[in-house]
Amino acid sequence: TDVHTDLDQHAKQLDKAHVFHSWSAQKAFDPLVIAGGLGTKVWDHAGNEYLDFSCQLVNVNIGHQHPKVVAAIQEQAATLATIGPATGSLVRAQAAQRITAKAPAGLDKVFFTNGGADAIENAVRMARLHTGRRKVLSTYRSYHGNTGAAINATGDWRRLPNEYATGHVHFFGPFLYRSEFWATTPEEECERALHHLRRVVESEGAATVAAILLETIPGTAGIMVPPPGYLAGVRALADEHGIVLILDEVMAGFGRAGEWFALDAHDVVPDLITFAKGVNSGYVPVGGVVINEAIAADFDETVFPGGLTYSGHPLAAASIVGSIDAMESEGIVENARRIGADVLAPALADLAARHPVVGEVRGTGVFWALELVADPATRAPLPPPLVAKAKGECVRRGLIPFTVDNRIHVVPPCVVTDDEVAQALPIYDEVLTMLDKEIA
Ligand code: PLP
C-alpha cells in the first residue's frame, strides 16, 4: 500500500510541476489522483474507492471502462489508428449512421469535431452561411464551450474575459425558481419567457438574427428543464423569422436526460444539433453537428469552409459505434430514465423536504440539481466557501460530487444501479445536515 500511496503522491508532484489546469489558479490547485475505474466507481493508486456522481465533467454516461467501448477502441487501434478527414472510412460512416438514427427525421448528416466547443463553432458558422445573417441569440444561463464563438455564446461569467467573437446577444430563458419575469407558475414562466425572446428578436432586428442557440436543458447553468411548450414556442418564433434553431445537446444528450436526445421529451425539431460528451462518454475526444437537409444542401455545390485534421477520427468513430450499440443492447438509456423517475426523483425530493439548505430539486434522468440556499425564504444562494466545504466532505466520504455555483449536480452514469444510489444518498444526507447547521 505504501508503494501505491507513493504513486499518488508522485503523480501529484509531477502534476504540480508540469500540468497547467483549466479554470484554476494553479498554486492552490490540489487534484484528486484517479488511477482506475469501472462503471460508477473510480479509485486512486492506493485503492481508495469513490462513487463518481460527477461523471467527471458530466460526460461519462456509459460509466468508466465499459468493456465493449474499450474493445471497440482497441480493435480499431490495431486495424487503423488514424486516417485523414478527406478519406472514406467505414467506421466513421457507421458512427454518423448510428447518431443520425437517434436524431429526428430530416437531420441526416454529421460533421465531426474534436469536442463540444468546436461543434458550436461549426453550427454557428453553418447558421450564418445559411441565413447570410450574423447575430446569434443565446441565454445568460448557459455554457457552450471555450473557443471564440462558443465562449461568446456562453452566458455565464466565463465569457467576460474572453469576448473575441462578435454578433452575440443574450436573453433570459425560463427558470421559475429564480424567475426574471415575476412568474409563479410554469405556464406564466413559459409565456413570459417567450414574450421576452420575441421582443429581443424584434429589437435586435429579426433580419439580422442567424440563429437561436439553446441548450435543450441548460446543464452547467443549473439543469433547468424547460416548461412544456417553451421549445415549441422558440421553434415557432424561429420559423416566423427564418432563424436557424440550434439545440446544444453536448451535456443533455445520449442518455443523460433519460432520452437519446433530451429534445425527444419536448415538442421540437431543431435545424442543427450539437453533441459531444455522452456520444462516446469521452473515451476519445469527439463532438459534432447533426445537420438538417436544408442546411446540408447549401453545401451540395458550394464548398463548406471548415475542417479539422481529426474530424471523424477512427478511434473516436469506433468508440461512438461501440458506445451507442452497448447503450442500445443493454438498455442503458432506459436505466437512466427509470433511475431518474423511480429512484432519484423521490429520494432527492425527500432530501429537499428534510434539509432547509436545499431550496429546490429539479431534473430528469440522471441529470439533477440541488439548489442550495443560505436562507430558504429569500433564496439567497449558499456562499462559495460552504459549497467548497460540501464538496470536500463528499469526497472524504467516498463520493465525487459535481458542484457549480451554489449547486450540487447529482449526475451519476446512466448505468448507475439502485444499490449505488442507495450508497450515495446517506452521503448527501450527512453533508446537507452539516450545511443546515452552517445556515441555521
Ligand atoms: N455545450 C455544452 C452544453 C456543454 O456542457 C459543454 C461543456 O461542458 C460544451 C458545449 C463544450 O464542450 P467541450 O468542453 O467538449 O468543448
UniProtKB/TrEMBL annotation:
InterPro entries: Aminotrans_3 (IPR005814), Aminotrans_3_PPA_site (IPR049704), PyrdxlP-dep_Trfase (IPR015424), PyrdxlP-dep_Trfase_major (IPR015421), PyrdxlP-dep_Trfase_small (IPR015422). Gene3D superfamilies: Aspartate Aminotransferase, domain 1, Type I PLP-dependent aspartate aminotransferase-like (Major domain). SUPFAM superfamilies: PLP-dependent transferases. Keywords: Aminotransferase, Pyridoxal phosphate, Transferase. This is Aspartate aminotransferase family protein. Pfam families: Aminotran_3 (PF00202). It comes from the Bacteria. GO terms for molecular function: transaminase activity. Belongs to the class-III pyridoxal-phosphate-dependent aminotransferase family.
